[in-house]
Structures are given as C-alpha cells and as structure tokens.
Amino acid sequence: MFEDLTNKLEIVFKKLRGQGKITEANITESLREFRRVLLDADVNYKVVKQFIDDVQKRSLGQEVLTSITPGQFIVKIIFDELVKLMGSAHTEIKFSPMPPTIIMVAGLQGSGKTTFCAKLANHLKSKGNFPMLVAADVHRPAAIDQLEMLGKQIQVPVVAERGKNAIETAIGSIEKARKAARDILIIDTAGRLHIDEEMMQEVETIKQRVNPHNILFVVDSMTGQDAVNTAKAFHDRLDFDGVILTKLDGDTRGGAAISIRAVVNKPIMFVGVGEKFDALEVFHPDRMATRILGMGDIVTLVEKAQAQFDEHKAQKLEEKIRKAQFTFEDFLDQIHEIKKMGPLQQVLSMIPGASRIPMDAEVNDKALVHVEAIIQSMTKEERQKPQIINGMRRRRIANGSGTSIQEVNKVLKQFTEMQKMMKTFSKGKIPNLLRGMKVAS
C-alpha cells in the first residue's frame, strides 16, 4: 500500500532531517520536491497547491525555525496537514433508531461495488448486526447471481427479484427485512462502465423512494485522478454520505486517498485491502497518514491481531515459552496466526520503519510458505527435538519441502536463535508474535 509514494517521501524527509539548520530556502526546496512526489502520485493539483501552501505557512513560523529539531518539526506539520486533508477523524455509519437501517451503495461497474456490499455485510455481522443484501443491479449480466453467491458464502440472506426492475426490488426489500427481523439493508445498485443519464436517474429514483440512511460511493483507488472526477460527478447528483476506496492493496499511487475528501468534502469511510471478506478496514485519517509517511500503523496491527486472538492458545504458548518448551509445532501455529492477519506485506506496512527494509529483501507471503513447507516436512519428533536433525534428515526435509538444504539450515539456525532469545524474556506479558525470527527466503 503506497510503497512507491512512501519511499519517495522518505528520501525527501531524509534530506530535510539532515539539514544542519533549517532556513526558508531549504524549506522551499524540500516542499518543491514534496509537491513533485504528490503530483507523481496523481494527487489533484489544486489539492497539492493548497496543501503545500498550508504546510509552508506553518513551516516558516518562528516556532519551527528556532526549534532544536526543525526537520522533525516540519515532518510533524506535514503529518498534521495530511490528517486534516483526509478528514481528521473517522466517520461511522448512521444507524436508524427504527430498523432496518438502509445503506445504498453506488459506483461504476468494475469498482468492486458488489464485493464491497458483501464485505460490509460480513463486517456488520461480525459486530452483532443482522444484515440483508439487496440485488438491485438488474442490468449487468450475472450481477444477481454474484451477490447471491457472495451472500451464501457469508451466510447473509439476499433479496433477488428476477423479472422486476431495480426500483421495485429496492422498495419491496424493506418489508422483507422487517419480516425477517433484519436490522440492516444493503442495496447494491447498478454500475456502468461510465457515467450515463439512465444510471443516474435510476439511482436518484431509488434514493427518493427508499430514503436511505446512508449512501456510500465505491471507487476503484487504482484509477487515481479519474476516481476523484467520478466521485464528484456522482456527488453532484446523489449527495452521498461517504466514500469507499477499493483495491488499496493493488498498484495504487495514493492520489485518490489523499485527494478525494478535499474535492467532494465527504469522508472516506472504508478501504478495501484484499479479496477476502475480512479484507475491509475502517478508514482512520491519522492511521493512513502514518502509513503514507512510512511511520507504520501499530493500532490497526494490534486490532488485527486481537481479531484473531485466542486467549487459551496464547496462555498455553506463554507457559511453553517460560518453560523453554517452544517447538516448531508452536512456531507453525504462529505462522498460521500471522497469515490470518492478511498478506505479509500489509502487516509489515503497519510496523514503523518497515519502509526502510531493503527493496531486495524477501518479505512476501511466498517466504512464509517456504518456512511452513520446511516445518511440515519434518516428522513430529523432529519438530519437538530439532537437535536430532542431522545431514540426512536435512536433505529429506529439503526434498520434501521443495527447498534447498541451505534454506533448511537457515530456518533451523534462526529457530535456535529465537529459542535463546525467548529464555531471556522476563515474567511480564509475552507477545505471541514471531519476534526475532527473520523470514527465510
């Protein structure tokens, strides 16, 4: 997420921090480079101009110029202004005091709109709600089938009225939700390959007849500045309540995330960070700013870990570590826990300083797969007592895992180092993450 943007900004910040003395001249030079990086990231040029002006005004103040660490001070100013640009605080879905709460979802075809509807339903279900999906995209072939399939996978009912138009389906779904005791109704409206009058009239009519409590606009963040232009066109007609950025885990330059709120003056509410149903994050401007600036996002990382947290397992693991009984079986369990948190690159992006990892370092999910394959190729006795693994056993493990003897040796060596480190842990709370273990590549 934003790797290219983050790496370029890190170069600018490094120069800034390295200045012995901050002057108006080197502030101007640094902000000129910052402007170029933002424009390369496809941030709206008007947004860039206003942002740089705001940062420059604060940076040239006496408080900065006389600061002991002026470079750090300016980075803090940039962070503050970036948070303000993206919304200052996260925005919640508005719930109706009288169920069902109606959420209407709009967007162009191909933006991930239908998939988002299912992800949102799954997210709300995990919070204790009882959502229902409505297939009101009657124009795209197989759109109804797709939503029904997604609903089945997450065990959420879907209203699908084949033969009826989208407006009739949307209106009729309200009574169906009440009869089924469903407290949230998520209406998937039609998308097109481009904005057209017929589509706009249909979603406007649904809005008038259904009177939704929330209108969410889904946009593909990989389309960059086009995403911002599309959002503005929809907002002019629908006056939606919030924006959803999908495919933020893809090859996105970050322009849409930074620009869109300033252009339409509506908050980003969720971001899609993968294909799985749980790959949906509530948007927090401050957390996103820290990721963009390469400072990580420990809060979201902890929340992801807690979502997968098994207290009983953690207590057993802690006891094993205290008694120096941590084995490859336990290590394999920890790999599975980390994989549940999402792609390794995403997890690393939340760790402060991860942006400084060398670009040629293997920090992808393939590396974890290799480690997992090596452990699974061991016998039960070998996982419990790795010291018995001799040359012949190493060759067998390498052949069984499709790796080399060198890779097996690296995993064994790193595991031994980790065991030594665990013996030094105090009696405080022991984290159940893979500390000290570099992923073999």
**Averaging pLDDT over every residue, what do you get?**
79
Major sheet strand order: 3-2-4-1-5-6-7-8
How many beta-strand segments? 8
Percent range for helical residues?
Answer: 40-55%
Beta-strand content: 5-15%
CA radius of gyration is: 25 Å
The CATH class of the largest domain: Alpha Beta
- Poorly predicted regions are 353-361, 426-441
Supply the CATH architecture of the largest domain.
3-Layer(aba) Sandwich
Largest sheet: 8 strands, mixed
**Looking at this structure, what is the CATH superfamily of the largest domain?**
P-loop containing nucleotide triphosphate hydrolases
What CATH calls the topology of the largest domain is: Rossmann fold
Q: How is the quaternary structure best described?
A: single chain
How many domains, as an integer?
A: 3
Q: Explain this structure to me?
A:
By secondary structure, the protein is of the alpha/beta class. It has three domains: 3-86, SRP54, nucleotide-binding domain (Four Helix Bundle (Hemerythrin (Met), subunit A)), CATH 1.20.120.140; 101-294, Rossmann fold (3-Layer(aba) Sandwich); 303-423, Signal recognition particle, SRP54 subunit, M-domain (434 Repressor (Amino-terminal Domain)), CATH 1.10.260. Helices cover 55% and strands 9% of the residues. α10 (225-238) links the parallel β5 (214-220) and β6. The longest helix has 19 residues, at 405-423. The radius of gyration is 25 Å and the shape is flat.
